[in-house]
Design a protein that fits this description.
This protein is about 40% helix and about 20% strand. The protein contains four helices and six strands. It has a six-stranded mixed sheet, sandwiched between helices. The longest helix is centred in the first third of the chain and has 18 residues. The chain is globular. The termini are close together.
């Protein structure tokens, strides 16, 4: 991993620019969202920041390893809006998960969102997919 610069942080999510700004790493904390609206509020300033920075020439790596699992329908509906607004439009996208269960859940959500991204438990594999192989 290359040294990065933190560009956003709240109790739920942190974002860093890495690889000379060509990669945005979004790391989800272990703090659970009380509801879907809290998730939308937490990501709103990050979405605006991504819009300002530009997405088309950047990749995004979403690290969900610490995120509490949650699949209640009301939350999933709200977070679907967050995923599309936050992670759409990047050159390439990838999601790092901790377990096979996480891999299955994110894969299901990707199909529902119709968003192309790679999901894996291997950070090295995801970085290589995004064009940032470890040296």
């Amino acid at each position: 991993m290359t040294p990065g610069v933190e560009i956003f942080s709240n109790q739920y999510v942190t974002a860093r620019l890495e690889y000379d700004g060509r990669l945005i790493r979004v790391t989800r904390s272990a703090v659970p969202f009380p509801d879907g609206e809290a998730a939308e509020r937490a990501y709103e300033p990050l979405i605006l920041l991504f819009d300002q920075l530009g997405r088309a020439e950047r990749c995004v790596l979403s690290d969900m390893r610490l995120a509490p699992g949650r699949n209640d329908p009301a939350f999933e509906t709200a977070f679907a809006r967050v995923r599309k607004a936050a992670f759409g439009g990047f050159r390439k996208a990838a999601t790092l998960v901790q377990s096979k269960v996480g891999l299955l859940q994110i894969s299901r959500l990707m199909r529902e969102d119709r968003m192309e991204r790679m999901v894996s438990e291997s950070e090295a594999e995801l970085l290589a997919y995004l064009g940032f192989p470890e040296t």
